[in-house]
Amino acid sequence: MATAPSRRTLPGLGQHCPYHYYLHGKDNFQVDRDAADRVGLAMPEIRELALENRSFLRRSVRYMARRGIRQFLDIGSGLPTVGNTHEIAQEIVPDARVVYVDSDPVVLAHGRALLATDDRTTVAQADMHRPEEVLGHPETTRVIDFGAPVGVLMIAMIHFLTLEERGPVMGRLLDALAPGSHLAATHVTREGHAPEAVEQIEAVYTTTPTPIFFRNKPEIAGFFDGLHLVEPGLVTIDRWDPESDTRDRPAEDVGTWLYGAVGRKD
User: Fold this and answer.
1) pTM, entire model
2) What is the average pLDDT value for the chain, to the nearest integer?
C-alpha cells in the first residue's frame, strides 16, 4: 500500500509544506517551492485556492466549536501555522484540544517544537491510510476522548485515497466517533475545469509516492456516507458559508477546484 502523502515533498493540493508556502509561511524548503511552482503552471490560481481552502478550514472549525465540539483531530495537517485549527478553536473554546496528524517525521519534529507551550495541542505521526494507527496513537488517545464528540478535519486529504480505500478508511474513522461528532473535508474535482489542466496536475503527482484523484461530485459524496450533511451540503468551497462568516467570507470562483462539506454523525 502506498504511504500517505509526504507533507514535505508533495506539491500543492494538501496541507503540507508547499501548502504552507502558498500561505506565505516561512517553514518550507526549496523542494517544496519548486514542486508548488510546477503545480502553479497548470493551476495559476493555486495560491489563492490554498488561501480559500484554509478559509474553509477556519469556517468549519468555528461552525463545529459553536455547536459544542471541544476536541479536534486534524488528519494530514502539515506544519501548524498561523490561523490553524487550535488557534481558531480556542478563540471560541479556550480549552479546546487538538491533535495534528501527519505521516512526515519532519512535520512531527517541527510541529512539536512549535506547539511545545500548549499542553492541549499535540502532533502524532501516523498514516491516514491506516486508520487504526491514527486512532490508536498514544498522542491521540492522550488528548482525544472518543466517548465525546470529535471534530475530524481531512482538508485536501481524501483525494489521496483510492475508491477501494474509501469505505474501509472512512468507515473505521467514523465508527470510532461518538454521536454528535463532525467531519469536515475538501476534495479536488475535475468538474468545470480543462482536462489538460487536470492531466498536468495529475502528472506532477505521478512522481510522488501517492497519486491524487480528481473526481466528480457523486464520487466525492461517497466519502460522507452515513453522515448528515450540514447545509448547504456538498458544494464547491466558494459556496460553503452556513453562518455568513464575515472574517472568512468565501471568494467567488477561486474555490471551484474543491468540493467541501461538513457532515454530522447522528
Assistant:
1) 0.85
2) 83
